[in-house]
Amino acid sequence: ETIQVTWFDNKMAVRRWLILAALVLVFSILIRRFFFPRPCKSTDTGWFPAVNPAPSNQSSSFRLHSFYVPSQDGTRLAVDVYLPSWWRSEHAGLPTIIHFTRYNRAYRVRWPFSLFLGKQLNSRSGKWVEAFIPRGYAVVTVDVRGTGASYGYRPVDFQPREISDYPDVLNWVLAQKWCNGRVGTGGISYDGMVGLLLAAQANGTVQAVAHLFSPDDIYEEIAASGGVACLGFARDYVSLTTSLEHNVPINVWLPWKVWFLFNFVVGGSAPVIGHEDEFQNAVKEHARNWNGTEFLQKLQFKDDIVKEVDGHPYSAVTIDIDTNIAQQLVDNNVAVYNYGGYFDSATTRSALNLHRHLEKGRKTKLTIGPWTHGGRQNSSPFSPSSDVCFDFQADIVRFFDFHLKSERSSVETEEPIHYFTIGEEQWKATDQWPPSNVTYKSMYFADEYQLSETNGLVQAMDKYAIDYSTTSGVISRWNLIYHLFLESVTYPNRASQHAHTLSYTSHRLEQPLTVTGTVTVRLNIESVESRDLILFAYLEDVDVSKSRVVYVTEGSLRASHRCINEAQNATCVRSFKRSDWRPMDGIERVEMYLEPVSYRFGAGHTLRISLAGADRDNFDHDTRRFGLPLPEQWHVHRGESYDSQLVLPVEG
Hints:
This protein is of the alpha+beta class.
């Protein structure tokens, strides 16, 4: 007897085999993770002692409750509450952590994975639940309006209506029996910014914020660092957030494990439990959300009005965490713990700036490590593994335990700043940044493309023909979407870039040299047949014996953004506003700053500063938006009255 196999039958068979293979794969991963964990071999293990164990009568099990909480304008926000399984209404209230996110508070888990993972997966704050529940906390997670299972729409990020939602949820939490009035908040990136905005307007009812890897100045620290549009970030980020908000498949490149997770294991945002029939109605309201791509394409200057909402103009300035917010945090006596990563956009610069504003309150901590966005990977080129050994959850728990539960710990006695030195692969502590033992050393651009400790006596000029194919790579510090998916920022041997850049190299170091702080590049530069230029500067470590060139840090600048302070030897301050922009005119003195770092150059190595006019895979080099063409060549002038130089903050 002949049996005819149809296309439909083939398709069903393939699906069955795919599900079976997926189950085998997932079970293999789970068994390996929980029963055969790999020892961490990375170099970033924390300096702090182990956290006191949770009470023996408190387990990690919890009860999950879901709610729709109305804001003042009636918009209903999706809220999940995690309570320790032992807690009952007759018990005393608990210290509470509130986590707001625009990246889905939880995902719906597909069958059959729901049989062993549960109906929803909290990938955004799940580790916080694991860390805080055993220590007697309540954890609250919230989809901000226009995202996840919340109603409403987003005409722009951080609109006043969204910001006023935060205290609405806070007041609801404070009114619950399970909350004892001691509240902490925070998170990574956008979520960390929300934490600051909530605490700033909470009048002291939020006591502490964990602010992790957040670019608080949207224009300068991620959207247009140095005034150069960061398209590598913008393209994939907008695509990701749009997919999440509309609850459709993610339309960006994904590593296979993440692709498998989003296409087989989870199926979009999790609905509010008990209100599953409302989920699609909530998502429909997201259809009016703003177009982030349009916003970023219009963004030329920091003060450009790119959108109006209910008569309110919006620019990049509008959505900053500015000095007024910082002052409110100080006035409200809020403790803030900042984290930054040397390989994460400009979050180290962001964390340092916020720390300086909060120092007068004396309740701020700062940790800077060799990490990508969110502390997901250790990208030190000297670490044997890109895994992260630093226990963020334990560190954050001891911070909140001290400020919300008044538990004595090393938090109250240790230095406020801890930083990791790449190359030494060690943690160091200080009470100020840069550390008090830092002095500044100038290395001048000299003949034969060398760096010299003295400026030349004869005026000279070096020509550079710009190669617009130059790139620092797709998986760089700027494209944060790759960071989210655990792709390590591993810059390749930059020896191959030498032919595409204008580079100056020092003599071999007789002894190790540790650079800690912000490296300054001062140039006397001329744009040939143009009145603008884009400048990228890379500090590199050249291991001559291995012909290996290691990326250390970088900076970018559109030269037509001028210093607004004219004081001699003062740090150049740029507003990046349209009114302060001015085309170049002949030979100009330009000062730019590389992203903060702590790095040890080994004895026998050389330092190199490499200049380029493009970073194709990360930044927009089309200045037609400014009405000015980019040059094909620029000249660096040095010697005599032209003191083109590299200024290094050197640890003594």
